[in-house]
């Protein structure tokens, strides 16, 4: 159901490659943009110290084109990928929708993905609080499992489970904090 | 010194800036201290007020009861007593007739009223001016030409008039000739019983106030301790916080001084409008000695500080909280019993002295009573603890209350201390009053069935005519049911001067004579000897036909008229009967034809009146009617029991005072109750959450107040009865318990409990609302 | 969201609750339902109205509008006395703190709800001791709440909430004042005891590790509730 789950590539403050597609799609929701425009907006909102390469934008966009999630809205004179204007398709919108609604698998260092999702939700006028609630629910599901295992296990199990529980709890606290600051974040996102 | 000042000032600031609790605390302290101060000031002023009154009373003394009259001169004045009474209030009346230019003036007036004029006191002027005083206006109908000044009055409410007259003959009391007003009487020692009463009243009223002040400065103690701990945290040392606490208490007490001074001034002004036991005082008379004022002004705040420091003695205020070092050990009984027993020991030697040499050692009485009452405050914590730890568990409300009391019986006991002292003192005092009142309420022997009033006409040549006219006039006076036929009487002896035997000599018509004796038959011209009257063995000796007797004989220095009267041969015998005034009368009864004119002139007239009980003004109608026949005619209302009404007012006053003290203590109970409830709001909400009935919690609040108060009242009643019995024994009265007042005081105590509970219910309900559950 | 009719088999349901304290709305359309034996965590930021929801569900507070049905009975149709009686006999309560009566001993505290219901003292205290044993605090029976630690006190409170055999246990931040270890222990004992008696537990908490003892959570935000059916 969530084909996007992979475990290996999370790094701090970097968006996983498959999420770049969803992110760019999300950015297109507010209107058709040039490739160059997309890169700049992405860097501004999510790139921070690791801006996207044009190549990454080009390859991602062509994959999205191939999957029918975007279409070319027009080409400006001068050619080159960055001169193409992309627009999101209905299928693309549905894909973003799905991606945002699906909770991430509770993992360490999830915050950047979640952050991207929250910002995108805000940018596209979706309910970011909903997104956070769904994520919390997912986290709690995991925590319930661990708590159950702890209840039945020996001390070693309990300690291991507790370690995981505390990490998940930290994530959840971040979720709560973010939820509490959604209004502020929305204002900031809108102003940029 | 500087540090002290700084810390005290900081404490004072806390007292007024401590939020609502701080204010309530300060105000209650101030009110308690203020009432105490006012009471102290009034108490210290009373001797001065009485002194000033007595001085003026002495200065205007006129009648000397002297047996001889001085000769007429240009510096003499003839004074006659003409007191009267209006609606039960007595009016001091004097007829004055100056006999020369140098005649002395009585204090308070600048010139004598001319005959037919009078000067009156302001209070009498007001009374005469009142709409419903027509009867009095008719009686005192002389023209008012001036006002008697304060120098001539004992108090602002005194009713007095001085009327100018002519033609007065000084014959001795009540008509005398004098050449100066005022005399220097021997200073009379204060009636020891009165002294005792005064002492006890003061102690009984002051002790609870003292206890209250001690409680008041402890209000909100926990909150204050926490604040002080916070001060420690930011660097104040132990001594500093103690000074700050002292400053807080002292500022409440200082505020109390102001309140007290204000209350005192108000009371002082109001005093002129007040009349107690027929006594009123001028505000300027209520003037405490400056030294005493200074003592009060210093002692009260000092005491407040002392109590605070005393309360903090077992408490170490640490930066992180308050530690009570004094381990709450089980209270011991023995030293608590020492106080009241020592008090009893002090009073013991004075048992029965009230009647004999009449000397009480003031210091021993005061110390003894104070020790006994203080003993109550010492015994209560022990009693509350001892009883409460033994209380079994009953319903939940009871269990909650009892457990609470077990945990903090000291607080509970402290709160009821004041009530207990007030009630113990009041009960003792009421008993004392009841006992003394028994003494002062005496049967007068007057038979009010047959007559309710007598009118007396002084002796003169016109006595019999005047008496007869008066009889007719009174018979027509509204409110008079019947008047006896006129009788005149005098004394008779065997010698013109210094007679060995004496009997009464009564004249009147046969009908009139039948009122005073049983006559076998009677016609004008008869003379009777009444034999067999009580306390009379002279009549038999005198009633020998043919001997000459002397009517109105002289004694000692007094020269009597000594009119000879020959006992006729046809002397008849009569039997005595009971007189309208009570008792019976022996002596001689003479019908008008058997009486010489000279003898008649020595006799005074008496009329006995039956009044219409439905007419409340009857006696005033009589007085006014009689006054038309001359100012010296004396009307007297008879009473079966001469009850000394002033004790009623003292008792009422005491009851009111004790009730006020109890209310004050009730207020402090309420404050501490609310403080406690506020601290438990979470708990209360939680209890409500799991389904505790409001009724249960209300009942628990009730028990929590009622149990210690009931214990306090029980102990107070016991101590009060003991103290009352001892005091009665001291005054040599029979010991009788005035259960009515015991019940009344206990009732007021119970009422205070109910009121406190009732008033703490609305906040309790408010605190029980689920809002209290919300976590911050 | 929820339907007007109570979900089948639910013990306590609430529909469209609204409650305002002055101008601020504490609840603004909240829904809730719980089955016997279920532990439901009520989560949400502070001030979101989760405690108010609990107070409404327990019949401590009457909502301005909306319906609460317990066991087929409408709570808002009951009098204050009836609701108090319901709380005494059918509900149990655990709060964060300030709930034990300081002057009563622990066993007396635990026996209190039974005593309020009219049970004799001896009998009530015997039942109380039984529950104190289950919560491993029977050795504190004679002590006063002031003499026991926070964790022990909270276990005493849990014992008290269970002593009447309630059908619904309301726990408002029951571990709020405790450290992790004590909090975990209290939650473990609480949920075990509730499950063994098939009592429903309404657990208000903002702590995820406490909420992890629940079967399901609902989130309250700005007075609105959101039932989080487990994803999948």
Which features characterize this protein?
heterotrimer, A: 192 residues, mainly alpha, Arc Repressor Mutant, subunit A, 2 domains, 3-stranded antiparallel beta sheet, 8 helices, 3 strands, B: 776 residues, alpha+beta, 12-stranded mixed beta sheet, 7-stranded mixed beta sheet, 21 helices, 51% helix, elongated
**pLDDT averaged over residues of chain A:** 78
Question: Helical content of chain A, roughly?
Answer: 55-70%
The CATH topology assignment of the largest domain in chain A is Arc Repressor Mutant, subunit A
Low-confidence stretches of chain C: 1-5
The portion of residues forming beta strands of chain A comes to: 5-15%
Task: Note the run of SSEs of chain C as H and E.
Answer: EEEHEEHEHHHEHEHEE
GO molecular function (chain C): ATP binding; ATP hydrolysis activity; transmembrane transporter activity
Domain ABC transporter (chain C): 12-232
InterPro entries (chain C): AAA+_ATPase, ABC_transporter-like_ATP-bd, ABC_transpr_LolD-like, MacB-like_ATP-bd, P-loop_NTPase
Keywords (chain C): ATP-binding, Nucleotide-binding, Transport
The gist of it:
Chain C: Keywords: ATP-binding, Nucleotide-binding, Transport. The complex is a heterotrimer of chains A (192), B (776) and C (232). With 776 residues, chain B is an alpha+beta fold.
Structural features, described:
The complex is a heterotrimer of chains A (192), B (776) and C (232). Chain A has 192 residues and is mostly helical. Chain A has eight helices and three strands, in the order H-E-H-H-E-E-H-H-H-H-H. Helices cover 65% and strands 7% of the residues of chain A. Chain A has a three-stranded antiparallel β-sheet. The longest helix of chain A is centred in the C-terminal third of the chain and has 26 residues, at 155-180. Chain B is α+β, with helices and mostly antiparallel strands. Chain B is built from 21 helices and 23 strands. In chain B, strands 11, 12, 13, 14, 15, 16, 17, 18, 19, 20, 21 and 22 form a twelve-stranded mixed β-sheet that branches. Chain B is elongated. Chain C has one domain (12-224): 3-Layer(aba) Sandwich (Rossmann fold). Chain C is built from seven helices and ten strands. In chain C, the strands form two sheets. In chain C, strands 6-7-8-3-9-10 form a six-stranded mixed β-sheet, with helices on both faces. The chains are: A mainly alpha (192), B alpha+beta (776), C alpha/beta (232). At the A-C interface, helix 6 and helix 7 of A face helix 7 and strand 9 of C. Chain A: Pfam families: PadR.
């Amino acid at each position: 159901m969530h084909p996007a789950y992979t475990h290996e590539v999370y790094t701090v403050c970097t968006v996983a490659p498959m999420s770049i597609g969803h992110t760019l799609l999300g950015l297109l929701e507010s209107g058709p943009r040039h490739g160059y425009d997309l890169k700049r907006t992405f860097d501004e909102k999510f790139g921070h110290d690791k801006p996207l390469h044009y190549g990454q934008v080009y390859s991602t966009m062509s994959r999205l084109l191939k999957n029918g999630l975007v279409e070319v809205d027009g080409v400006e004179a001068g050619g080159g990928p960055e001169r193409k204007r992309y627009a999101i398709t209905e299928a693309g919108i549905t894909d973003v929708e799905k991606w945002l609604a699906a909770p991430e698998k509770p993992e360490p260092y999830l915050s950047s993905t979640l952050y991207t999702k929250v910002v995108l939700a805000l940018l596209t006028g979706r309910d970011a609080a909903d997104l956070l609630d769904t994520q919390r629910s997912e986290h709690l599901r995991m925590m319930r499992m661990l708590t159950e295992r702890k209840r039945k296990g020996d001390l070693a199990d309990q300690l291991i489970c507790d370690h995981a529980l505390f990490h998940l709890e930290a994530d959840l606290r971040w979720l709560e904090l973010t939820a509490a600051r959604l209004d502020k974040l929305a204002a900031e996102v809108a102003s940029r | 010194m500087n540090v002290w000042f700084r810390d005290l000032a900081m404490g004072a600031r806390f007292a007024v800036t401590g939020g609502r609790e701080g204010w309530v605390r300060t105000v209650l302290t101030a009110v308690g201290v203020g009432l105490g101060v006012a009471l102290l000031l009034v108490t210290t002023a009373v001797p001065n007020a009485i002194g000033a009154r007595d001085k003026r009373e002495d200065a205007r003394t006129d009648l000397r009861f002297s047996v001889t009259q001085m000769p007429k001169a240009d510096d003499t004045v003839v004074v006659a007593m003409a007191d009267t009474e209006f609606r039960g209030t007595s009016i001091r009346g004097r007829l004055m007739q100056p006999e020369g230019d140098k005649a002395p003036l009585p204090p308070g007036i600048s010139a004598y009223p001319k005959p037919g004029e009078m000067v009156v006191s302001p209070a009498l002027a007001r009374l005469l001016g009142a709409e419903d005083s027509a009867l009095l206006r008719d009686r005192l109908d002389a023209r008012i030409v001036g006002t008697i000044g304060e120098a001539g009055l004992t108090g602002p409410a005194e009713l007095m008039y001085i009327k100018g007259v002519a033609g007065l003959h000084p014959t001795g009391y009540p008509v005398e000739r004098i050449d100066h007003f005022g005399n220097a009487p021997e200073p009379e020692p204060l009636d020891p019983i009165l002294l005792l009463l005064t002492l006890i009243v003061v102690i009984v009223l002051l002790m609870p106030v003292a206890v209250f002040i001690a409680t008041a400065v402890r209000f909100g103690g926990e909150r204050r301790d926490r604040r002080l701990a916070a001060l420690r945290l930011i660097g104040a040392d132990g001594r500093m916080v103690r000074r700050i606490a002292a400053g807080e208490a002292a500022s409440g007490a200082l505020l109390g001084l102001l309140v007290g001074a204000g209350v005192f001034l108000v009371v002082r002004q109001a005093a002129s409008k007040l009349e107690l036991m027929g006594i009123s005082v001028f505000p300027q008379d209520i003037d405490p000695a400056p030294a005493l004022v200074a003592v009060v002004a210093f002692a009260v705040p000092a005491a407040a500080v002392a109590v605070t420091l005393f309360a903090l003695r077992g408490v170490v205020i640490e930066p992180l909280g308050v530690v009570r070092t004094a381990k709450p050990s089980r209270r011991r009984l023995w030293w608590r019993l020492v106080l009241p027993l020592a008090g009893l020991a002090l009073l013991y030697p004075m048992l029965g002295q009230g009647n004999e040499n009449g000397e009480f050692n003031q210091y021993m009485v005061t110390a003894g009573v104070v020790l006994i009452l203080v003993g109550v405050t010492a015994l209560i914590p022990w009693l509350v603890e001892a009883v409460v730890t033994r209380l079994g568990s009953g319903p939940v409300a009871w269990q909650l209350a009892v457990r609470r009391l077990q945990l903090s019986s000291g607080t509970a006991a402290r709160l009821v201390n004041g009530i207990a002292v007030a009630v113990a003192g009041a009960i003792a005092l009421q008993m004392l009053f009841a006992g003394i009142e028994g003494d002062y309420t005496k049967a007068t022997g007057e038979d009010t069935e047959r007559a309710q009033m007598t009118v007396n006409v002084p002796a003169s040549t016109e006595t019999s005519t005047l008496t007869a006219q008066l009889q007719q006039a009174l018979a027509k006076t509204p409110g008079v049911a019947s008047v006896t036929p006129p009788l005149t009487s005098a004394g008779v002896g065997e010698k013109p001067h210094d007679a060995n035997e004496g009997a009464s000599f009564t004249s009147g018509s046969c009908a009139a004579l039948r009122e005073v004796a049983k006559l076998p038959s009677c016609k004008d011209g008869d003379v009777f000897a009444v034999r067999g009257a009580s306390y009379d063995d002279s009549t038999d000796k005198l009633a020998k036909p043919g001997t000459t007797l002397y009517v109105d004989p002289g004694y000692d220095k007094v020269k009597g008229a000594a009119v000879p009267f020959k006992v006729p041969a046809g002397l008849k015998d009569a039997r005595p009967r009971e007189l309208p005034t009570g008792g019976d009368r022996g002596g001689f009864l003479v019908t008008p034809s058997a009486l010489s004119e000279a003898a008649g002139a020595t006799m005074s007239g008496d009329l006995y009146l039956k009044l219409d009980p439905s007419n409340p003004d009857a006696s005033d109608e009589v007085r006014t009617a009689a006054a038309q026949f001359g100012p010296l005619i004396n009307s007297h209302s008879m009473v079966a029991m001469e009850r000394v009404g002033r004790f009623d007012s003292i008792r009422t006053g005491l009851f009111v005072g004790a009730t006020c003290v109890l209310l004050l203590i009730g207020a402090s109970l309420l404050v501490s109750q609310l403080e406690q409830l506020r601290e438990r709001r979470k708990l209360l909400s939680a209890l409500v959450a799991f389904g505790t009935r409001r009724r249960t919690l209300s009942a628990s609040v009730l028990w929590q107040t009622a149990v210690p108060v009931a214990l306090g009242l029980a102990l107070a009643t016991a101590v009060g009865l003991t103290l009352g019995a001892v005091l009665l024994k001291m005054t040599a009265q029979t010991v009788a318990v005035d259960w009515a007042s015991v019940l009344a005081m206990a009732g007021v105590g119970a009422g205070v409990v109910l009121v406190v509970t009732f008033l703490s219910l609305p906040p309790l309900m408010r605190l029980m609302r689920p809002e209290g559950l919300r976590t911050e | 969201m929820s339907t007007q009719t109570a979900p089948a088999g639910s013990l306590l349901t609430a529909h469209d609750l609204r409650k305002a304290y002055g101008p601020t709305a504490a609840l603004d359309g909240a829904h809730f339902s719980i089955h016997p034996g279920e532990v439901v965590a009520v989560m949400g930021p502070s001030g979101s109205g989760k405690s108010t929801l609990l107070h409404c569900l327990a019949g401590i507070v009457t909502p301005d509008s909306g319906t609460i049905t317990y066991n087929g009975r409408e709570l808002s149709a009951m009098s204050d006395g009836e609701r108090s009686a319901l709380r005494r006999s059918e509900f149990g309560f655990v709060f964060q703190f300030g709930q034990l009566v300081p002057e009563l001993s622990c066993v007396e505290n635990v026996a209190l709800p039974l005593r309020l219901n009219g049970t004799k003292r001896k009998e009530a205290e015997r039942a109380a001791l039984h529950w104190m044993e289950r919560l491993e605090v029977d050795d504190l029976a004679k002590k006063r709440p002031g003499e026991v630690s926070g964790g022990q006190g909270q276990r005493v409170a849990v014992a008290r909430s269970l002593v009447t055999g309630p059908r619904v246990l309301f726990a408002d931040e029951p571990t709020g004042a405790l450290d992790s270890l004590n909090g975990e222990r209290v939650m473990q004992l609480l949920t075990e005891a509730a499950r063994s008696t098939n009592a429903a537990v309404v657990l208000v908490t903002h702590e995820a590790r406490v909420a992890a003892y629940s079967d399901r959570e609902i989130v309250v935000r700005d007075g609105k509730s959101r039932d989080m059916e487990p994803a999948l």
